[in-house]
């Protein structure tokens, strides 16, 4: 059985903050009849400076990090229903953050939660190597059922020609389309509107999925019994019923993604696949289903899954409890907090400059002096090394994947910060050079001189007057 | 080799407004107030001034751009005027323009005026501002206390001080300046405070509390400078002469190169060295009677004692706690209350420092008059005015002395 293509690498990023469902229930439980027991688990939530794009960049970096820098990636495909830009190539921002060359092809898929598996199907049919990135960070109305079940995360898969070193080989695909509205979100709306779960289960999932899975397996000449894993982005109860109706004996679903992170929209099915890589054995046959106005059913054979390096488990293990429901609401713009007059500052972007300096700002590319080897950010015409000061000797030097150490820091309560205090300081790069930069994902008291830091792509600030969001790199503790 | 500025230019007169929250005054009122005092002090007519320099930093929030706000407010007789701006060293930059013009012989009498109207912004602290179209894309939107607070973090780490120990020395600095300002009727903050109050004050930017920070004030200060000959012709017996006026800006090393350790300013030691050479000072610890430094934050004053060569490196906290820079110490620092308590109307601050040295050298400082090393009154005073943040700044060091000394 030859494949369509292989999944060569996998990267997962789950934002660090976790809002426990008990915390949500404590804040919003009054809106419904008392529950018999407190809801379990936590949902991953974006920090104020994270959005689908920053999650996607981090997942993509994790995915490609083990590759030699000259590894050829032909295209980036970004799949999301919450891409920050309605008209600006979000995939191109990811490409720029990875400092990929202009020759790269980009595409974006959205408009349905099936975008993630749709991207996988699409990528498998392409030539060359595709970096598929799926992520979602959906807003949820306070008190809604979605507030408890949704979560924010992104996953990246490198898809290429079949290879024995692959994590998995895609053996077959079967898609069905049906304009069934289990939930919807009109363009420009903040929140999903969800329909009755039982109707969705009985009239859509239980009808379409057995049909698609049956066709998939019969095309592959396989028996339902051969399938070891069955992955479907729905509740564990639903997954079990659906597996039974497909005649599958396989363990259905994956609880870790839904309980510890939450339903991350277009990314969920692929996150479940990443989770399977953490534990599957070579040869395990897996059926992956994507849902959204139809289904994608994908048959995969696990190859050397261990190569994923426990991507999902590692992503879930980096976490910090967010004890404040109100602060979470503020981070997502769900309450309008008064941050004082300093927050009124005009954050207009000179786009001519942003474009001219795009490798520095989006790619975090500095300079390295060809004469004295001093690394510096930004790349400048004249070397900063006081012993050198040579002109036009610098070559591009990417700092995004470097490490640094905290030289100085402060926790500033005067400056405007959506999550006070505003932490920043001087960071010295491992290869030399210094930059005064912002720290993120740190709480008061976390930082100390000489702490080791790495760099992450984050929202720098928001221009509310013109509706523009800009990004830069921040330091965070290793 | 240039001969330097020493004794080529003297101060004919100076003026300084009361600093503070001058709600009822605009920048024009403040300029007129300081200028009036200086004219009277110099004993000259307005029209004898041949050129003038205006220093203002936050032009967007107060005067608007150019030197026209000064030329128009003072109705100067269409003489050449310039506006200068070098961050918080702006006042000294204005003085430098006027002093150099007189030294060059381009004019006989020149005016340097610094003004800042900070309290029209609507909130505490300094106004928000852009860092320019490129830097706004990557530098943190830091505040002044946040930028300087990092000196304390780096200093404590490098010289082995626990933060509580360093904070105690910093608290002593603030208390000393409040104490000094209580004797200065023009100072913004004249209340006395205790070290415990400083330590207990609300956090501003770790490890600085609100009482580690200088006053945000409205105010203006100015100097009329001329040649020693003209000063004599005006009947000035004891003229205060400029003995050194040095300016050292960063060139980016602290911002971008790993060689800077974040514990001190890189620029001030250079400016001090050049100023001591220009003024002919061999041992500043023995020769300087009083100093006014850029104490925007307590930690800034602390490290500047080392940057100026007045304390050994890593020893300033001990010297501070020993009272070396107190009113009755070996080298009184901020005898007028400093930026901390006299206040910090940015464009005026460098000139305000010179104003205090000028008053002290002429024995006109009233209740806060120092006796100096000789007991006959101080004869050499130093000002250090710093623009910017530790990561990049403009350090100026000036030395003033009675003519002939």
Set out the fold topology.
The complex is a heterodimer of chains A (478) and B (405).
Chain A: E1 5-13, E2 17-20, H1 21-28, E3 42-45, H2 52-64, E4 75-79, H3 90-97, E5 105-109, H4 115-124, E6 130-136, H5 145-149, E7 153-160, E8 168-177, E9 183-184, E10 193-194, H6 197-220, E11 227-231, H7 236-245, E12 251-252, H8 255-261, H9 268-277, E13 285-291, E14 294-302, H10 311-317, E15 320-321, H11 325-331, H12 351-356, H13 358-361, E16 365-369, E17 375-376, E18 394-398, E19 404-406, E20 410-412, E21 422-429, E22 434-438, E23 452-463, E24 468-477
Parallel strand pairs in A: 2-15, 4-5, 4-6, 11-12, 11-13
Antiparallel strand pairs in A: 1-7, 1-8, 2-3, 6-7, 8-14, 9-10, 13-14, 16-17, 16-18, 19-21, 19-23, 20-21, 21-22, 23-24
Helix pairs in contact in A: 2-3, 6-7
Chain B: E1 10-16, H1 27-42, E2 51-55, H2 68-73, E3 81-84, H3 90-104, E4 109-116, H4 144-159, H5 163-181, H6 195-200, E5 203-205, E6 208-209, E7 219-226, H7 228-233, E8 240-249, H8 253-256, H9 267-279, H10 284-287, E9 290-292, H11 298-307, H12 316-321, H13 338-341, H14 346-361, E10 380-389, E11 392-402
Parallel strand pairs in B: 2-3, 2-4, 9-10
Antiparallel strand pairs in B: 1-7, 1-8, 4-7, 5-6, 8-11, 10-11
Helix pairs in contact in B: 3-14, 5-11
Low-confidence stretches of chain A: none
CATH class of the largest domain in chain B: Alpha Beta
Order of helices and strands of chain B: EHEHEHEHHHEEEHEHHHEHHHHEE
Oligomeric composition of the shown chains: heterodimer
């Amino acid at each position: 059985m030859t494949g369509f293509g292989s999944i060569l690498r996998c990267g997962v990023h789950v934002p660090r903050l976790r809002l426990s469902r008990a915390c949500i229930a404590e804040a919003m439980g009054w809106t419904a009849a008392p529950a018999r027991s407190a809801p379990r688990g936590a949902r991953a939530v974006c920090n104020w400076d994270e959005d689908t794009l920053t999650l996607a960049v981090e997942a993509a970096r994790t995915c490609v990090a083990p590759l030699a820098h000259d590894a050829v990636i032909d295209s980036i495909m970004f799949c999301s229903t919450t891409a920050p830009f309605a008209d600006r190539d979000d995939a191109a921002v990811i490409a720029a953050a990875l400092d990929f060359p202009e020759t790269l092809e980009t595409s974006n898929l959205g408009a349905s939660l099936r975008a993630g598996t749709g991207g996988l199907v699409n990528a498998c049919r392409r030539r060359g190597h595709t970096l598929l990135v799926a992520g979602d960070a959906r807003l949820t109305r306070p008190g809604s059922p979605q507030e408890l079940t949704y979560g924010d995360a992104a996953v990246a898969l490198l898809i290429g020609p079949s290879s024995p070193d692959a994590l998995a080989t895609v053996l077959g695909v079967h898609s069905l389309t049906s304009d069934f509205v289990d939930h919807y979100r009109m363009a420009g709306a903040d929140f999903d509107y969800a329909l009755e779960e039982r109707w969705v289960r009985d009239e859509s999932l239980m009808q379409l999925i057995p049909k698609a899975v049956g066709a998939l397996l019969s095309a592959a000449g396989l028996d339902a019994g051969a399938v070891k894993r069955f992955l479907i982005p729905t509740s564990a109860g639903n997954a079990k019923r659906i597996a039974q109706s497909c005649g599958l004996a396989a363990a259905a679903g994956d609880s870790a993604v839904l309980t510890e992170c939450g339903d991350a929209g277009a990314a969920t099915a692929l996150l479940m696949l990443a989770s399977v890589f953490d534990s599957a054995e070579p040869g395990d046959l897996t059926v992956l289903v994507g849902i959204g106005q139809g289904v994608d059913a994908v048959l995969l054979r696990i190859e050397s899954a261990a190569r994923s390096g426990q991507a999902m488990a590692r992503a879930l293990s980096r976490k910090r409890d967010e004890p404040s429901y109100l602060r979470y609401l503020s981070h997502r713009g769900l309450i309008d907090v008064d941050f004082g007059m300093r927050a009124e500052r005009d954050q207009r972007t000179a786009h001519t400059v942003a474009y001219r300096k795009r490798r520095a700002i989006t790619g975090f590319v500095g300079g390295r002096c060809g004469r004295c080897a001093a690394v510096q950010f930004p790349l400048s015409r004249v070397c900063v090394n006081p012993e050198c000061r040579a002109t036009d000797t610098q070559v591009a030097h990417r700092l995004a994947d470097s490490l640094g150490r905290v030289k100085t820091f402060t926790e500033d309560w005067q400056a405007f910060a959506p999550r006070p205090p505003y932490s920043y300081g001087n960071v010295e790069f491992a290869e030399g050079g210094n930059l005064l930069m912002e720290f993120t994902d740190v709480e008061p008291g976390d930082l100390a001189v000489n702490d080791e830091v790495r760099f992450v792509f984050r929202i720098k600030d928001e221009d509310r007057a013109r509706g523009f969001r800009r990004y830069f790199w921040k330091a965070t503790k290793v | 080799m240039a001969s330097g500025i020493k004794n080529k230019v003297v101060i004919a007169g100076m003026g300084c407004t009361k600093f503070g929250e001058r709600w009822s005054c605009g920048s024009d009122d403040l300029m007129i107030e300081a200028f009036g005092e200086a004219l009277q002090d110099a004993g000259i007519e307005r029209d004898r001034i041949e050129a003038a320099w205006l220093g203002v930093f936050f032009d967007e929030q107060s005067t608007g751009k150019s030197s026209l706000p000064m030329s128009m407010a003072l109705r100067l007789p269409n003489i050449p005027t310039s506006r200068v701006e070098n961050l918080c060293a702006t006042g000294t930059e204005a003085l430098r323009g006027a002093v150099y013009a007189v030294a060059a012989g381009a004019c006989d009498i020149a005016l340097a005026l610094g003004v800042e109207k900070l309290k029209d912004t609507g909130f505490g602290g300094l106004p928000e501002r852009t860092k320019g179209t490129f830097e706004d894309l990557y530098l943190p939107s830091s505040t002044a206390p946040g930028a300087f607070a990092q000196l304390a973090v780096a200093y404590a780490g490098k010289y082995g001080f626990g933060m509580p120990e360093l904070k105690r020395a910093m608290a002593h600095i603030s208390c000393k300046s409040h104490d000094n300002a209580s004797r200065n009727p023009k100072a913004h903050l004249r209340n006395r405070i205790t070290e415990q109050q400083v330590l207990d004050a609300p956090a501003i930017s770790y490890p600085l509390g609100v009482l580690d920070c200088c006053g945000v004030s409205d105010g203006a200060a100015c100097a009329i400078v001329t040649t020693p000959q003209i000063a004599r012709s005006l009947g000035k017996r004891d003229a205060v002469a400029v003995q050194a006026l040095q300016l050292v800006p960063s060139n980016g090393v602290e911002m971008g190169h790993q060689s800077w350790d974040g514990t001190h300013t890189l620029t001030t030691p250079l400016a001090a060295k050049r100023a001591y050479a220009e003024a002919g000072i061999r041992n500043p610890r023995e020769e300087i009677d009083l100093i006014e430094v850029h104490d925007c934050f307590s930690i800034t004053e602390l490290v500047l004692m080392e940057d100026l060569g007045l304390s050994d490196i890593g020893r300033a906290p001990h010297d501070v706690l020993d009272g070396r820079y107190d009113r009755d110490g070996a080298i009184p620092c901020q005898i007028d209350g400093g930026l901390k308590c006299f206040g910090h109307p940015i464009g005026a601050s460098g000139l305000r420092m010179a104003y205090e040295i000028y008053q002290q050298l002429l024995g006109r400082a009233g209740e806060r008059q120092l006796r100096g090393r000789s007991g006959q009154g101080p004869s050499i005073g130093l000002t250090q005015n710093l623009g910017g943040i530790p990561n990049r700044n403009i350090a100026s060091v000036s030395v003033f002395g009675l003519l002939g000394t």
